[in-house]
Fold Protease 3.
Amino acid sequence: MKKAFTISALALALAACSQTSNNNTQASATNTLAPLDKLAVSPNDQRGYRTLKLENNIEVILVSDPTTEKSAAALNVGVGLLQDPMTQQGMAHYLEHLLFLGTDKYPETNQYKEFLTENGGVSNASTWLTYTNYMFKVNNDAYDEALDRFSDFFKSPKLYPEYTEKEINAVNAEWSMRREMDFFGQFKLSRDMMGEHPANRFLIGNLETLGDKENSNLHKETVEFYNKYYSANIMKVALISNASLDEMEKLAKKHFSPIKDKGIEKPQVKQEINFAELGGKKIYYKPNQDLKQLKLDFTIKNNQDQFKFKPNAFVSYLLGSEMPGTPAQQLKALGWISSLNAGGTPNHYGNYGEMSITLNLTDLGMQNRDEIVAIIMQYIDLVKEKGVDEKYYKEIKTSLDNEFRFLQKVDEFSYAAQLVNSMQDYPLNYSINAPYYFGQFNAKAVDDVLSQLTPDTLRIWYTSKNEKVDQKQHFYAGEYRIEDIAESEIATWKKPTQVALTLPKVNRLLPENFDLKTAGMKQSTAELKVEKDGVKVWHYPSQLFAEQPKGILKIDLNAGEANADIETQVSLALWSDLYNLQQSLLQAEASVAGISTRATTSNGMSLLLNGFTDKQNLLLSEMLSDLIPEVTETNFAQAKDRLIRGINNAQKQFTVRQLFPALQNLTEANNFEDDALIAAAQKLDVATFKARLEKLVKANQPRVFAFGNYNQGDLENVAEVISKTLGSNHTQTSFAKTKTIAPLPQQVLSYQKDTAAADNGLLDIHVHRKAGFKQKAIANVLAKHFSHEAFNQLRTEEQLAYAVGAFYYPVDDYASIGLYIQSPVMDLVQAQKRFDDFKVEYKAKLDALTPEQFAAIKQGVLVGLTQAPKNMYEEVSPIFSDWYKENWNYDSKQQMITEVQNVKLSDIKQFYNETLANPKASRINVQLRGANYQDKPFAEIKGQTKITDIAELSGKVSYQL
Ligand SMILES: [Zn+2]
């Protein structure tokens, strides 16, 4: 959802930390609302809740959900990077790694992960500035035992000194993988500028910062850090399970009460920032990716204790508005920017936070950066003067209330992690509703934030490939130069600009009617409900969430065979960019009203509406009335520039993130290499582009899938609006879906390509010769065990890479299984050799698998497949892919479940022999050679068909029907 001010999962993960500020001047605005006396829960949430404080002062939230198939737990310790010793930067993160390796009761390093694998579980952990968070989920019947293992990490971890080297290498590999990410580089530089403030530390750590130094022994300090900070009274626990609240309370006490309460004071940073040093700066930053960005970044005091008054949300709502007269709208109209986003994070640096406005610029915008800064600063003055108005409070409050009222479940794993983060940040009873609760309009709280948005707290980031720089970052790839903002420059911000700024007008799309339209509708599968002038509308009423007045509407104008053509593909990409840009006012207004909208391309033009159904009809007719965006030479050139930079930037992503898209491109028909797409984009002119769009609107097959709260009238209306948009001279084309490769025996497709990222990437899959759910089910079960063994051997034992593992991959109707790695240390020949050897070594592990272990793994897969969907999105996903594949029985999920039930131990052994251990199996191999390895060869595979251009595949492979 774009431009919404509620806290997204990511923002929550990033924001989650820290204590309330110690600053007394801020406390005056609080306490005018009576505190909650019990945990606030969404009226839509039927689960049982209980809060506890154990004898050792751990706060706990219990969530009892009789429908859940998996139980989850999270534990958050209120300590993080801000407490790292200067001599061992990255230690909080390093400890997070070391902690998992065995305890007094369960001393083996691999026992925990093994137990989870055998019981359908997963685990993870993360470290941020003010917290370290640990979580897992597992089958319900293994919960008690899993909790016993999990909680032991916080009672008696082994912290084996002999694993020091191995884990430093793991941390170093993690850093090396993120080294070129501009987000991490810029965040580090922004903290480096904070002088003595502890936020200046290096979050991830590497071989240089972690390690023994004179007077500083890593292991000794890690043990001291654990002993000092891992105290029950700064821990928060969340448990979710199908057990009753009474049973869960017993579990909580049994496992978490023995954790030692050291009675420590919650670590808090009190150090003041010297704004004379930090503020009033311009940073010229040369990024790794080809960005054209401007960011106004204000450092503000942590005001998390005022969450009931949402001052940051209020301010960023006004700053980021897309309504007529606001900077976002005006700058887009000038063709200077493609996006403007405003946001506030109160604890970005612990006791300080950030309020920022980030703009993506066009080349025209790049030439007018100073003017843009002046416009934003003048708009901030306007907000200070006239914007603190109760009408915006009402609008934001309505939107947040609606969202909270119909809040949907997320999976247990994320929910547990989310709850404990929130418990560190807010009083216990607000742990769920804090992001949505807007108790009162409080002008003073808003004014407090606005008063801090001045040149003294401001840092302006000019980010592009062309910046003049004079310094290199030490731990990251970015280069930069810092300058003061001159007084004379500040004076120019007062001068008149070429735009007339106004504050946003009120929203028209807020839902008023929450009528439920599908109650009593007897229909248990998707059905074709309307067929009018060639527009077909299918409808599937939610079986599980009929109490939600929401729906998902997907409109596809399927382009049929035209889609095979590169010019069509480029035109569609440019269309969705320009369309979304020109619709941004409408999209932002809809988003505030709880409806997300987006144009995408899936074998043609495609529109998606998702959220409250009340105003969707109005919205859709407005969206369709401008289906072909206005195109000029200027905005067309700008869209091409974004497209080309986007393609080039994708090549700079972590290699591991490029591997899977490359695999998909290779297995699906009608794909092209990046250079071919770029050349086609460069060649395209406005006239051809317009003609192409008109043709796409004129000839296509319109198909609509409606899921959720719609009645027959709504569906007919949708068909009507679409048919009117397409007009009377519309031609129906035949429906085309993406074709996928069919495996040929002995065929080894090896895609070999250089990439701009530093590390090598290798991915290698073996495809089974028979299609169908039986083989897919077997592969699914086998992959669970295979990937566990691969991770254990290649990552934990050998530390070959941070990103290494195994996976199951459906090549449409065929099953495959394989390995992937992003390696900073091995060349491709070495990596391929290690994979080939591991495939042989694994045989012995598979032979050693006992029937009991096999049964547990299979059960884990089954539980994952049969568990009830948590929300509307999970409910519709399998139905939706059946719809796209034209499987009118909508039974793929059920077929998979039935086949998994039938899988035997001998089946997975046979499957293994027919794929990974079979030299004649069909294989797909992807080799991306990193920039650091240009002088090393690619791996040659016996009998390979080498591919360097995907477009040349067509004659060499056959496709599934
Ligand atoms: Zn890590």
In short: Residues 275-405+425-492 form a domain with the Cytochrome Bc1 Complex; Chain A, domain 1 fold (CATH 3.30.830.10). Residues 93, 97, 174 surround zinc ion (CB under 6 Å). The two ends are 36 Å apart (CA to CA). The mean pLDDT is 93.
